[in-house]
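agent> step 3/5: call structure_predict on target 'tRNA-(Ms[2]io[6]A)-hydroxylase' (Nitrincola lacisaponensis).
agent> reason: downstream docking stage needs a structural representation; sequence fetched in step 2, passing through unchanged.
tool.input:
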Amino acid sequence: MTALDEIHQFLPCPTPDAWIAEAAKAENLSLLLTDHAHCEKKAASTAMTLMFRYVDRPDLLNKMSRLAREELIHFEQVLAIMQARGMTYGHMSPSRYAAGLRTHVRTSEPGRLIDVLIIGALIEARSCERFARLAPYLDDELAKFYRSLLKSEARHYQDYLFLAQEYAGEPIDARVAFFCEVERGLIEMPDTEFRFHSGLPDFS
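tool.output (status=ok):
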């Protein structure tokens, strides 16, 4: 089973075809890339935050340090693609996706850490799935770039899930299932703004 197969089994639902159709529109490319860049920067920030908060966990420090470096490289790569195409990177309101997941994070430890790590696994897995789904609908340069991200994004998902299991000290299947259902709702419910992790397009 490939890493992408594993991700398809982990995620509660596939990305809706309607989102793929919206993302593939030429007029949405700048928006897609801008939000993609923001996502990479936020992913690096999340990893760094975990490193500062949990300084006594060597496995987490090593995995998050590598993850942060890779996400920042991806950020730089997206910026370079945008600049080469004459696109401007700027501020953008965040989608409800990550915030919707984090609403359910427990406040006491170790539950807080476990939940944040499970959410990290879901976000990385969904990103990987969308890169793979989008690639056939993009131009050759972007398709090649998105496919090149699959391996690292799949590893990031695995790292987050491994750490969640390691630090829980008990099975996390029920908690993973809970967040998967939250994620399903965010992906399948109508969304009024198009973003990299947005749900069904509903811009009427």
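agent> step 4/5: record observation. Residues 3-197 form a domain with the Ferritin fold (CATH 1.20.1260.10).
agent> proceeding.
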